[in-house]
Design brief:
Blueprint lengths: L5 H53 L6 E5 L5 E5 L6 E9 L5 E5 L4 E2 L5 E6 L4 E5 L10 E2 L1 H10 L7 E8 L2 E8 L8 E4 L7 H6 L3 E4 L4 E5 L6 E5 L3 E2 L5 E5 L10 E7 L1 H26 L17 H14 L2 E2 L2 E2 L5 E3 L5 E3 L1 H10 L3 H6 L9 H14 L5 H59 L4
Antiparallel strand pairs: 1-17, 2-16, 3-13, 3-17, 4-10, 4-12, 5-8, 6-7, 6-11, 9-10, 13-14, 15-16, 18-19, 20-21
């Protein structure tokens, strides 16, 4: 009589009992995992595109301009989209500089010789320094380094003045430097409240290393143009243009020309940035919605039959073709091939901007939260319907998938319990059967023994 294995047979029967439900749970779990992964991929693609829109919007106009000085080393300049092309003449009479004074061989004195001093700037601001509390190493003596530290750490300083100790040959200097350029940063030290002695005397005789001066620049020729004076060497007198002057001129020198001109390559690069970002997003959406092969060799993507994702693609495509201020994106040299992939014709863009200089601003607008407009604003607002962290499509869909996965986990736990119960039941049955078969084998052996012929 063949032997049986109760454990193996019980496992087989329990598996057969639960296999249908187990297959269904496994199928649904795999589908939920694919959907969750696809939602994460879609979210990343949408966020990357939204970031690209914000970057373009931050440029405050996609038209690119350049600003260059006619003399090398004169300074640097940049121009935004709002700058008006043209030539401008400047004469730099004086550069702004930060005030710097030094106190030579400041003596080390007993703490008792310390006390309050006041450091003031010409702009009317000041702060107090308590030298009596400056003895950091508690040796009873105030050193130059401790005085410098007290000034730097004084409440109310906040970077107005920086102090350092410098070695110059065989002498040392306590150097105070203004935190800003310009005449308003001129430093003065009031040591009147200090006890009479060498420290008070030394602080009263500072040596000027660099003057506190404003920048003086003429728009036009020196003496006959428009005089501009300010604390910084960076000027924004021309709307949309920022200039930082690095060299002063001698009296009688000719003004230097600043040329502001359109940058066709830079402008095209800005538009191409949008084209590339859109194509990247659409490629990701296409991958998530593509159909499998007819022979089943290639499976369909997770969102092949998803109406919401198809609507996402169609809506962005519709926005792309909208009219903004009488101009469409396609009028700017952007076209789509049969697969929807965008490309830019830079020559056509230049031609359009020559006729309609504000065409780019009309079409692209801004993704500003307070005043969205144009293509950037429309797309950003629509993307928010998907990316909003409280009630967007991605958030709702992920919550739904997570709920499904939690329910599947509960069902799996319940099914595991059913399997164990069935296994124990079948194990008991097959164990009894094994016992009965063993008894039958013994009984059969007895009959065989009685039936055997005697010798």
């Amino acid at each position: 009589m063949a032997e049986i294995n109760p454990s193996a047979m019980a496992s087989q029967m329990a598996t057969y009992y639960t296999q249908g439900t187990q297959d269904l749970i496994a199928l649904q779990t795999k589908a939920a995992q694919r959907t969750s992964s696809a939602l994460t991929t879609l979210q990343s693609a949408l966020q990357a595109f939204d970031t690209a829109l914000a970057t373009l919007s931050g440029k405050k106009g996609l038209v690119q301009n350049t600003a260059t000085f006619g003399v090398a080393g004169f300074g640097s300049a940049s121009a935004t989209a709002t700058a008006q092309p043209g030539n401008y003449a400047f004469f730099v009479e004086q550069l702004a500089s930060a005030h710097q004074i030094a106190f030579e061989d400041l003596p080390a004195v007993p703490v008792a010789s310390g006390g309050p001093i006041t450091v003031s700037l010409a702009d009317g601001t000041s702060f107090a320094v308590n030298l009596a509390a400056a003895d950091q190493d508690a040796d009873g003596t105030l050193s130059q380094a401790e005085v410098a530290r007290a000034i730097n750490q004084a409440a109310g300083n906040g970077g107005k003045v920086s102090a350092m100790v410098m070695a110059v040959g065989t002498t040392t200097q306590l150097v105070l430097s203004a935190g800003v350029t310009g005449a308003g940063g001129a430093i003065s030290v009031d040591a009147f409240a200090l006890p009479t002695g060498p420290l008070k005397d030394a602080l009263a005789t500072g040596k000027e290393l660099a003057a506190a001066r404003d920048a003086v620049v003429w728009l036009g020729a020196q003496g006959s143009g428009t005089r501009l004076q300010q604390a910084s060497n960076t000027f924004t007198a021309i709307p949309g243009v920022t200039m930082t002057f690095e060299r002063a001129q001698a009296a009688g020198d000719a003004p230097v020309t600043l040329t502001v001109a359109g940058d066709a390559a830079g402008t095209a690069a800005n538009v191409r940035g949008f084209v590339d970002a859109y194509n990247t997003l659409m490629k990701a959406v296409d991958e998530l919605t593509k159909r499998g092969s007819a022979d089943g060799a290639t499976a369909s993507a997770p969102f092949t039959s998803d109406a919401g994702v198809r609507m996402l693609r169609n809506k962005l495509n519709d926005i792309l073709r909208q009219d903004f201020g009488g101009v469409r994106l396609m009028d700017l040299g952007v076209s789509a091939d049969r697969n929807g992939v965008l490309s830019l014709d830079a020559a056509r863009l230049d031609k359009k901007l020559a006729v309609t200089p504000d065409a780019l601003d009309r079409v692209f607008g801004t993704a500003s939260l307070t005043a969205p407009s144009g293509l950037l604003g429309a797309m950003d607002q629509y993307l928010d319907q998907w990316l909003d962290t409280t009630g967007g499509q991605i958030k709702r869909r992920k919550d739904s998938v997570q709920s499904m996965q939690a329910a599947l986990a509960v069902r799996q736990t319940r099914l595991d319990a059913q399997f164990e119960s069935a296994y124990e039941r079948y194990l008991a049955q097959f164990s009894r059967l094994e016992g009965l078969m063993a008894q039958m084998s013994q009984t059969s052996g007895m009959f065989d023994m009685f039936a055997a012929p005697s010798r």
